[in-house]
Design a protein that fits this description.
Number of helices: 11
Shape: globular
Mean pLDDT: 85
Order of helices and strands: HHHHHHHHHHH
Largest sheet: none
Low-confidence stretches: none
Strand content: under 5%
Distance between the termini: 40 Å
Structural class: mainly alpha
Number of domains: 1
Number of strands: 0
Length: 259
């Protein structure tokens, strides 16, 4: 399930990149996107963008376009996750109910921004501010592509929630099943919170704390903690394996260049 979710995310990235006028073979695009995910395991949230920019050029793809596509993909992924995180609000104080509308509104505004001329203008401004002329030549993603990949990211989040349910049932078959909407909301909220903490590599610690906080009241703190840790290990093994597969041609070429 996780393997399919990560490969599907890479395919969504390919779709965004192609809508920007770049030609990339599916396998090459997978390698670039997945290899760049190694950057998620470093503090800061920019390394996966930098990694995609660097590796894409070995496949004849504009590094600026690859980095921009990664930024767009990350934004949509977490905007959709922020919307799904609302399912975890059940049982919280009533005065937090406004958060639902705020997050939904932020998601709509975010997608509208990516599909508007403002995004292209922002790229030109960034190119001028950083002295990177290549950014000014990047075509923004086609609005139709954004409409296609947004439901795709919803499917990715559903797969992640399914992974959480499988881990929970595998570790504690005697426990009642976690309600699917709670699993979806908790998984999304934990991942978005981990992404928001810039110094946490891959949201380490933050994601687990949020999962325990949201799942603890319904299944107990100890089971929730064990589930969060097991899920972290499982997801890390799968993601790092795919990332190393993606980055291996680039790492091998760099090593040959230094020899």
């Amino acid at each position: 399930m996780l393997l399919g979710a990560y490969l599907f995310r890479a395919s969504l990235w390919n779709h965004v990149l192609r809508s920007m006028g770049e030609e990339v073979r599916t396998r090459d695009g997978w390698r670039v996107f997945l290899g760049a995910q190694l950057g998620r395991y470093l503090p800061g949230k920019v390394w996966q963008i930098a990694g995609a920019s660097l590796m894409a050029e070995r496949y004849g793809v504009s590094g600026a376009a690859a980095g921009t596509a990664t930024l767009v993909a990350v934004m949509i992924h977490h905007l959709v996750g922020g919307a799904f995180a609302l399912f975890a609000l059940e049982g919280l104080a009533d005065d937090l109910a406004w958060t639902g509308g705020a997050v939904a509104l932020a998601g709509v505004i975010g997608l509208a921004f990516l599909a508007s001329p403002l995004f292209a203008g922002s790229l030109r401004w960034l190119a001028s501010a950083t002295g990177r002329a290549s950014l000014a030549k990047v075509e923004p993603p086609a609005p139709r592509a954004l409409l296609v990949v947004t439901p795709g990211y919803a499917l990715v989040w559903l797969a992640f929630a399914g992974a959480l349910l499988l881990v929970a049932h595998g570790l504690f078959p005697g426990l009642p099943w976690i309600r699917p909407h709670l699993a979806l909301g908790a998984m999304a909220a934990a991942a978005v919170a981990g992404f928001a903490v810039l110094i946490a590599p891959s949201g380490l610690g933050v994601r687990e704390a949020v999962l325990v906080t949201l799942l603890g009241p319904s299944i107990g703190v100890v089971p929730a903690t064990m589930i969060a840790l097991a899920l972290r290990i499982w997801m890390t093994v799968v993601e790092l394996s795919l990332s190393l597969w993606g980055a291996w041609p680039h790492l091998r070429a760099r090593r040959a260049e230094k020899a």
